[in-house]
Amino acid sequence: MMIRPFLYDFRRTITSKSVLILTGIILLISLAIIPFTAPVVSSFGGSSSPDILYYRDPGAYHFIVFSSDQYSQPVQGTEISMKLSGTQTQTYANSSTTNSAGYAFITLSAPNGTYYWTVNATRGGSSSSLSTYLYSSPPIGQPQFQYTSWISTVQDRANASKSDVRTFYAGLYGAKPLGYSIRYKVAATPPLPPYKDDTPYTEGQMDLLGNLTDYRQVFDPAIPNGLSETTRVYFELFASNGTAVSGRQMFVTDLRHQQFRPEATNVASFFFSTILSFFMPLAAILGAYSSYGKDRLTGVLESVLARPISRRGLAISRFLSTLTALAVAAIASVGIVDLLLNQVLGSALPQDYALAIISGLVVEVAAFTGLIFLLSHLVKSTGVLLGISIVLFVVLDFFWGLIVFLLTLLLGGTSGSAVAVEATLVSYYANPAQFLQLINVYVFQSSSGFALQSSNYGVTLPAIILDGLLWTILPFLAFMYLAVKRD
Amino acid sequence: MFEIKAATKVFSAKQGPAISSVSFDVRNGEIVGFVGLNGAGKTTTIRIAVGVSLPTSGTVLIDGHDITQEKPEASKSIGWVPEIPNFEPNAKAWKLMRYLAGFYGMDGREATKESKELLASVGLSGFENRKFRTYSQGMKKRFALAASMLSNPQNFLFDEVLNGLDPEGIQFFRQLMMGQKKVKKAILLSSHILTEVENLADRVIFIHKGKVVKTTTRDELASYASKGTTLRIQLQSVTDEAVSYLKTLGKVQLDGNAIVLSDFQGDSAQVNSELVKRGFQVREIKHERTGLEEYFFDIIRSTDPAK
Questions:
Q1: Which candidate in B44, B71, B98 is best for mutational testing of the A interface (most A CBs within 10 A)?
Q2: Pair A182, A236 in one domain
Q3: B88 to A295: CB separation less than 8 angstroms, yes or no
Q4: Which residues constitute the domain of residue A279?
Q5: Cα end-to-end span (Å), chain A
Q6: In this predicted model, what pLDDT tens digit does every residue of A261-291 receive, in sequence order?
Q7: Would the pTM of this model clear 0.90, i.e. be above it?
Q8: Would the CB atoms of B54 and A299 count as touching at under 8 Å?
Q9: pLDDT (tens digit, 9 = 90+) per residue, B227-266?
Q10: Cβ–Cβ of B71/A4 closer than 8 Å?
Q11: What CATH code is carried by the domain that includes residue A104?
């Protein structure tokens, strides 16, 4: 191979208009990280509707209503009217007014059955109305919730920048829930589902928030400062014998109004594995098409091949120049992101993580560039090449998750099951567009926000390196064989 | 000079070889005509010779360099003008030429100068800033010619360059080839315009169904041409007397009301006046084939009776 024509073609390709435009676009895309570095401000919704729970005994439905303000403080004098309409023509109605503790107790002497239930609450000049079906045969004496959760957030009275949690619960037959306790756990990366009762933790692993002494209570959980916005808080109601009764998970942003400064690595991880990882295959496809595929399939490449350059030299120079341009763009992109994160969030990316991301992006670019170069030798027209390239991009970048999900279902797995997680992680190996996801799983030991031991699913450093090498080398070698040995 | 040695190209095993054991050489200072019917294998042979297509077997030596094994060295000595020049369509001509010049080691300034000079030399002055796709077929061929001359190569391969050219274009290429021959360049000219080949070529290689069936020198062609041309004579009625007279002028074959007079040497006008003088009503006399055409079809017939 004469080096001069090779270097000349390399230089010309890397500085070609199309490659430079693509490089510029990638660098511009890097700036798209800026919105993700903005502090997260949580906002809470409010409700003027009263909290209601009910239980059934053999002859009637009993409703406990609590009317409150935004701080969950009781409001006296709210008029509550309630009606149960049966499937026939029977209706059962009653009304009451909340007492000084905010409660109203209404009994409707309706037998067991399915009813259309309407509630009107009037307080001052405003009123609210609710309606839904109550289905037959709820367990006798057990508290039931229709509109209301047993736990929800309310604004803290003293500090508008945070929320407390309010519980609304009853014991059997409407007794006060004495003996029940509520516990909570703050978790940055929770373990993988499925969970028993919506909470992955046992009583011993959770902190006591308080004991229930009334139907409605307000608690102020201790939430540390500086958590990422993806941190979750798990709540669990325990009976006096330690049995978990009901669980609920919230994001920490549901509880704290304060601005959450995103973590640099989290922002970078999201940005690289979703946004840049989405565009890099597209850039590689377009770059490979413009620098090689189009020229080869229109015959223009022959006008170059007739010059003093070997077939091997021309093939390598076109591949390497495309790869180099996009790899440099990827490196620059990581640099820009790092710089921005450092400026805005005050923390730079860990060096080894930045290197891992760069390696991942280079693998993606090399794989897609190699595949398009290879396809250029397998199809007969630019239209077919573009068509297949678009299909490749759409399938590998857009529909991969769906395909894996459907395969999981075929294998008998369900969403969130161990089979689904394993299938997803294995699928990352088979798809160069998901290579960064693989790296993220390994680096963060988590997938989709859930903690896992990546090695249990075959995600190990040697396997990732091997996969990266295979995606980098195999399409290129197949392309080189056809470029050098075939017309 | 360049040599093609036993070049075979198989595109598809089902279709058989496109060319089979094609061997010939083109020496310095020589124009060699390359003649064959459509699909005979001329373009395939030339594409292999310039290195844009790979031979299934065989070798091509360009000034001693194997086009497959030592392509960069070999390609320096080749100028190729394809039948349909295909360059980057959206590039301006002079920029395209400058880009191609870079492959020959020219720096930017030298490449620009050389490009503009070459474009001027092929008559494209004033059109340098136009995009290649806006060029006419003739201009594209002139551009390809200029591109083929970038390294002042020793060997030229012209593939149907005269097709689609106007008389001025044909004359331009004819003069160019004669000029290159004078400076001892080796030239292979593939063409359907056999009279041009006949006039220009020192030798003519005939290819048919992928095989070289004959190589003829200019002397052999001249000798064949001296055997005469073929006249097709239409008389009002063909008589023995007319046939007897015409047999004194050459070989006679009857074809309905027409008499085909081959191996005729002389002036067709004289034949006409003599026939009229002898009382025959002559409806038409026309030259059917001459020289190379006749020779070509003779060769085709001898190798492929179906033709």
A1: B71
A2: yes
A3: yes
A4: 3-38+263-485
A5: 19
A6: 677 888 888 888 888 888 999 999 999 999 9
A7: no
A8: no
A9: 677 888 998 888 888 899 999 988 898 887 789 888 887 7
A10: no
A11: 2.60.40.10
